[in-house]
Amino acid sequence: MLDFPRWKTIGISIILVLGIVFSIPSFVPERITQNLPGFLQAKVNLGLDLAGGSHLLLEADVADLQKTQLANMEKTVRTAMRGERGPDDDIAIGELSTAGGKISFLVRDQSKLDAARDRLFSETQGAGMTGQRDWSIDIVDTTRIVMTPTAAGQRQAIANAMDTARDIIDKRVNALGTREPTIIRQGDDRIVVQVPGLQDPQQLKDLIGKTARLEFRMVDPNADPNEAAAGRAPVGSEIVPYAEGASAGAPFEVLRRQVMISGEQLINAQQSYDPQSGQPVVTIRFDSGGSATFAKVTAQNVGKRFAMVLDGKVLSAPSINEPILGGSAQISGSFSVASANNLAISLRSGALPVKMTVVEERTVTPELGKDSIRKGAIAGIIATVAVLVLMMVVYGRFGIYACIALFFNIFLIIATMAAFNATLTLPGIAGFVLTIGAAVDANVLINERIREELKRGRRVFQAVELGYSEASRAIFDANVTNVIAAALMFWFGSGPIKGFAVVLTIGIVTSVFTAVTVTRLFAARWLHAKRPTSINI
Hints:
Blueprint: H1 6-23, H2 30-33, E1 45-46, H3 48-51, E2 53-60, H4 62-81, E3 103-106, H5 113-123, E4 135-140, E5 144-149, H6 151-175, E6 182-186, E7 190-196, H7 201-208, E8 214-218, H8 225-229, E9 237-241, E10 252-256, E11 261-262, E12 266-273, E13 280-286, H9 288-300, E14 306-310, E15 313-316, E16 328-331, H10 337-349, E17 356-364, H11 366-419, E18 423-424, H12 426-439, H13 441-455, H14 460-492, H15 496-530
Parallel strand pairs: 1-18
Antiparallel strand pairs: 2-7, 2-17, 3-5, 4-5, 6-7, 8-11, 8-14, 9-10, 12-13, 13-16, 14-15
Helix pairs in contact: 1-11, 4-5, 4-6, 11-12, 11-15, 12-15, 13-14, 13-15, 14-15
């Protein structure tokens, strides 16, 4: 137990030195760390409550989600009524209505009513674990089918949409290059977004508040401008306004309702510049299916106009001069470099399945964080000094070893957090102070066990060896339970609770290493060098 081969001594020494080296960047200004090698630039990130930043509370527009859900099912119904085996397998239906949040249509051939219902039944699904379906299908007046979204189906749709929205928002925020944002669901239809270090909440709102639902639709060439100005569009078309600053003429376009190609088929979007005008634009590229569809649509509509529609607003409506066969397109508009880059990020991350609105907005200033850091540092210094004095007074030389190990423990915690790019929050500081106070618990157990062995008449070497070996079991068991508790806090907690759990877990692991292994190394080298016949502990 007190034998340390040379390789083991060297290994422990290297770990301690690396802990000091990799913790240094967290204590020095960023202008200094920028000149260091890349592997030495990792530092502990400060959370929103310490570094300041932006806080947004987003709420889902449930009515918009239900509208989208209705539109998607309308497309599904039309597709289902077209047979897989050709025109002979089609089921003719009358005009389809979506009034009142229901889908209603007439089956022209009454003998095919059951077949139509069976096709629709296969297109609906179960609403989670409720045992209900997401749509109810009823036959009214012997020839009309009415589809109504069920309450269980709507709840499941909201839950799925919020999970997807959270993942997409996470991708968008991380694309900004910010570190350790907190993005969590709150209730059934809200998401909390906290981004440390970002002092411009408007930039965050512009990025994550955009639904980024991109559609390519044909302009209706037969629309009467006078009728459109009066708010009336032909059957199968609708009036869509231009985005702010995007139109130099009429404030709207009359577009076919049918979406020729959508943003779901994008595989990339990048901010670039128009080679002719030099203005910022967004260059997009479709997947293989989207490229084929885009080429087919543009080849069939040369000389006609098509519109790029983003979140229900027309960005541009250029003419198709020739077929576009490369699977790429360019979105132009009144973009700045920042807005074009934000749009590219939004398109790359995918469209939000539901429109999100900001219901609460806060900016946390760094001054509040500095005050928290100062008070946390004072608490940490007081705790450290108190522990050092107590250990040295009570345990003498072995208390000094515990104090040295405590300093190494502090450096190792910071270095480990920096290596894992962890974020330090105010609760994390509490966990740090708690770790410092509890770090010497293992040394107290060891030293008390050595005292007991000395009172029993053991020799010094034997007493120290038994003290470490016997106490190590209790130390291991106690800290395993602490790690389990911290892991549960991390798994089920969110935001600050996770920050506390991370610091606590790292502190437990490093404190066991320093309190047991490092102090045992110090004790072993002193005992082998001095060969004392008695010790005062």
